[in-house]
Amino acid sequence: MSEVLVVIDHAEGEVKKPTYELLTIARRLGEPSAVFFGPPDQGDAVAEKVRKYGAAKVYVVDDAQIKGFLVAPKAEALQQLAEKTSPAAVLLPSTFENKEVAGRLAIKLGSGLITDAVDVADGGVTTQSVFAGNYTVQAKVTTGTPIITVKPNSAAPEESEGAGAVEAFAATISDAAKTAQIVATQPRQSTGRPELTEAAIVVSGGRGTGGDFAPVEGFADSLGAAVGASRAAVDSGWMPHAFQVGQTGKTVSPQLYVANGISGAIQHRAGMQTSKTIVAVNKDPEAPIFELVDFGVVGDLHAVLPAATEKVKER
Ligand code: FAD
């Protein structure tokens, strides 16, 4: 069975959930091999985690020559690994960085590229939502090694024992790949909530909050969810732009999306309509968001959300 390379998404060796989702998807295409960019002394601990989701091998790529630079060295290392292993596909979590890595890798390998897939079925047929969510497209790479970036929450991680054999991979990074150096990085202030694009549950608020996000945040916290916002809420200065969901904000695809006081404009839908289950709270029964939802509550969010929060806390 051919290998499928899965690039591990991690922060200081802490493996993030999208990696397990990708390993689950990779098993539909071949035998997953995880690729860890990081310090070699973290390799064994990472291998122990990804092995439980079916990783037969774990390639440890020492990131000493890679982490201080923007994406080019990573693409070069992956090219060398792909040339050595001839994988059936290369899967990466859909982050801004990985999408650029994937683009460069596709050019280097002369391969087709699909970004932002929300599903990858047997045979490598992907599903994507395109043109601000107006079309759902099924696509397949027909040239070279399929390079596919997959959005978080595209699959439920399923455990499966893999050998997790650690193999050091020594990539040769050219000077040409080291032309853009990272000078400083500033860690984002933690909200204590999950990252918006990775969260399994997102609770969002719009203009209907009237600027009072407390009920939205309270409900989000009761569910362990991330908080999102419509552009109207962001433009009003109620929430920072980092919270905006939509065409000009972030794209989310959680298991559950709860839209509160949001009308459901096409530009907002573009960022959330691939969510698995959608719930809306809106006082207008004619609000367009109700065309999209699995469950809808017609009511004032300032009454509905505190009551719902109480119910969740009682559980
Ligand atoms: P509104 O459309 O004003 O809706 C508010 C809703 O709240 C109404 O349905 C109302 O019935 C309901 N409501 C009011 N009070 C309550 C209450 N007490 N309880 C319950 N419900 C209540 N928008 C985005 O969100 N994200 C984007 O990325 C984005 N990008 C854009 C890009 C472009 C180029 C353009 C032109 C627009 C973009 N927009 C985007 C804006 C988008 O068109 C809408 O204007 C915006 O989404 C509206 O936000 P809203 O639903 O919060 O506000």
Automatic annotation (TrEMBL):
Keywords noted in UniProt: Electron transport, FAD, Flavoprotein, Transport
Gene3D superfamilies from the UniProt entry: HUPs, TPP-binding domain
Cofactor: FAD
One annotated GO biological process: fatty acid beta-oxidation using acyl-CoA dehydrogenase
Any one GO molecular-function label of the UniProt entry: flavin adenine dinucleotide binding
Chain residues that bind FAD: 207, 230-231, 244-248, 261-268, 282
Superkingdom classification of source: Bacteria
Residue intervals of the Electron transfer flavoprotein alpha/beta-subunit N-terminal domain: 4-187
SUPFAM superfamilies: Adenine nucleotide alpha hydrolases-like, DHS-like NAD/FAD-binding domain
Cofactor remark from the record: Binds 1 FAD per dimer.
InterPro entries on file: DHS-like_NAD/FAD-binding_dom (IPR029035), ETF_a/b_N (IPR014730), ETF_a/FixB (IPR001308), ETF_alpha_N (IPR033947), ETF_asu_C (IPR014731), ETF_asu_C_CS (IPR018206), Rossmann-like_a/b/a_fold (IPR014729)
Function: The electron transfer flavoprotein serves as a specific electron acceptor for other dehydrogenases. It transfers the electrons to the main respiratory chain via ETF-ubiquinone oxidoreductase (ETF dehydrogenase).
PANTHER family assigned: ELECTRON TRANSFER FLAVOPROTEIN ALPHA, ELECTRON TRANSFER FLAVOPROTEIN SUBUNIT ALPHA, MITOCHONDRIAL
Complex formation: Heterodimer of an alpha and a beta subunit.
Similarity comment: Belongs to the ETF alpha-subunit/FixB family.
Name of this protein: Electron transfer flavoprotein alpha subunit
Organism of this sequence: Nocardioides cavernae
